[in-house]
Specification:
Order of helices and strands of chain A: HEEEEEEEEE
Strand content of chain A: 35-45%
Number of helices of chain A: 1
Largest sheet of chain B: 4 strands, antiparallel
Shape of chain B: elongated
Structural class of chain A: mainly beta
Distance between the termini of chain A: 37 Å
Largest interface: A-B, 41 and 47 residues
Strand content of chain B: 25-35%
Order of helices and strands of chain B: HHEEEEEEEE
Number of strands of chain A: 9
Helix content of chain B: 10-25%
Oligomer: heterodimer
Chain lengths: 125, 156
């Protein structure tokens, strides 16, 4: 996550069959304990969320469960596509301790740094 | 240009490869296909943020859906005035992370307001709003007078 480099890691073949996704808007903070990533995924509930850790990459996928609305569309600004975004992780992150929650379409990922890289005070005898 | 689009692909920020160039092209095509409302919303980026809306109409109701991720119910205000529906509120940033170093800040915070003029009168006392998974759904039943009526004509 150091450089927060994002890349499309899907094989080329898969990309051409392209399911279209939208990229959620994110905020990323670094604190002394780790990173916090917030991603906006309105329309996605806990059940629609798919988070995959692979190597040094984390993939966030959000499936919407749109309840169909009958009638004629007078105005359309929303795009009801699923969300997807990939982030490269800082090696300092303890991938075993990553946690996620989603509240009102806002995903919060907590990515703690492993104990060995956290700044630590050494007691002097 | 990429700053004006809501769904910009973040990888465009890096040096474009061939594939990315084609993405950019699609992006531009999309901009030209986008309805006027998109342009109106884009221009509002300078003054604040503006949640995306869908408006549906069937014979009995209007249904408005607004994307408002990560808010609390009490921060959202819905009102009806002179046949116009107004959705407003303020999204506050969480202070607990402010001391940390910011790597990315793509989310919008602050005040917003959207107003939709409804083409026919609605029964103000029967309007319902629901906020779930970051989507605000407002159902506005039409008044009896505004509903389409079928008139049977007896042909003699």
């Amino acid at each position: 996550m150091k450089a927060s480099v994002e890349k499309d890691s899907r094989p080329a073949r898969e990309r051409t069959v392209a399911q279209e996704f939208v990229s959620p808007e994110v905020n990323i903070f670094e604190t002394k304990d780790g990173y916090v990533l917030e991603a906006e995924m309105p329309g996605v509930s806990k059940e629609g969320l798919e988070i995959t850790l692979e190597g040094n990459e984390i993939t966030i996928v959000g499936h919407r469960h749109a309840e169909p609305v009958s009638g004629e569309l007078l105005l359309r600004e929303r795009r009801e596509l699923d969300y997807r975004r990939v982030f490269e992780l800082d090696p300092a992150i303890d991938t075993g301790k990553v946690s996620a929650k989603i509240e009102q379409g806002l995903l919060t990922l907590t990515l703690p740094k492993s104990e060995r890289v956290k700044p630590r005070k050494i007691a002097v005898d | 240009m990429k700053f004006l689009t809501r769904w910009q692909r973040p990888e465009l920020a890096t040096w474009p490869t061939f594939e990315r160039v084609s993405n950019l092209r699609e992006e531009i095509d999309r901009l030209f296909e986008a309805p006027l409302a998109e342009w109106a919303r884009s221009s509002q980026l300078l003054s604040g943020w503006s949640p995306a809306l869908d408006v549906y109409e069937d014979k009995d109701n209007f249904v408005v859906k607004a994307e408002l991720p990560g808010m609390k119910r009490e921060e959202i205000e819905v009102s009806l005035q002179d046949g116009g529906l107004s959705i407003s509120g303020e999204r506050k940033s969480e202070e607990k992370y402010e001391e940390g170093e910011v790597y990315r800040a793509e989310r919008f915070f602050g005040k917003f307001q959207r107003t939709v003029t409804l083409p026919t009168p609605v029964a103000a006392d029967k309007v319902k709003a629901q906020y779930k998974d970051g989507i605000l759904t407002i159902t506005l039943p039409k008044t009896e007078e505004a509903k389409p009526k079928q008139i049977d004509v007896n042909v003699s």
